[in-house]
Write a structure and sequence with these properties.
The structure is a single chain. This protein is an alpha/beta fold and 185 residues long. It has seven helices and five strands. A five-stranded mixed sheet has the order 4-3-2-1-5, sandwiched between helices. α1 links the parallel β1 and β2.
């Protein structure tokens, strides 16, 4: 199941009082979603918790809260395209994941990485593109920078982009996830 872990800010915007409890989902199908203000605009932050791969969006459409599921699915598909996965790979990912549902965030490990990213995000206001929805420059800073992840402690320092690609290649093709691959920038 594709799980979108919502923070309290997102739950408030969507008028959700209570979310379903977490299953033991495959973390490769989990995404955390948070909301903040940047340059006086709502900014959506979508984070893949195990790799810390992120996507940052501003200038959100008015109906985002009614179509959040579709918006996030499209954002994930765009991320796969940016990382050179084929349409067939994207279809396979969503087929393997199955239906999506909103849940609570996926625990301390997941929210710790997201909170770290949120703290660093406030230093990026100057490179936010006020005309674009997808914040490519800010997203690239985070995805190409060196990070640690609670899910792969033995890897020390990785780049979120490289680890995300490794995880998806493991899921889709059965390739092994190695420290060397996860640290390529």
């Amino acid at each position: 199941m594709l799980e979108f872990g919502l923070t309290n800010k997102i739950m408030d915007k969507m008028h959700i009082k209570k979310l379903s409890s977490l299953d033991e989902a495959d973390i490769r199908f989990c995404w955390e979603i948070n909301l903040t203000k940047m340059n006086n605009k709502n900014t959506l932050v979508i984070v893949h918790p195990s790799s810390r791969y992120c996507m940052i969006y501003s200038n959100l459409p008015r109906n985002i809260w009614k179509t959040l599921d579709e918006f996030v699915r499209n954002a994930i598909a765009e991320a796969f395209h940016r990382e050179c996965f084929s349409n067939e790979d994207i279809d396979s990912y969503f087929e393997l994941a199955g239906a999506s549902r909103y849940t609570k965030t996926h625990g301390r490990k997941a929210t710790g990485g997201m909170n770290r990213l949120m703290t660093e995000l406030y230093f990026m206001e100057d490179i936010m593109d006020s005309d674009e929805s997808f914040q490519a420059d800010v997203t690239n800073v985070f995805n190409h920078g060196v990070a640690t992840t609670a899910y792969y402690k033995e890897f020390n320092y990785i780049t979120p982009k490289s680890l995300f690609v490794c995880e998806m290649r493991n899921l889709l093709y059965g390739e092994e996830i190695t420290k060397e691959k996860a640290q390529r920038g």
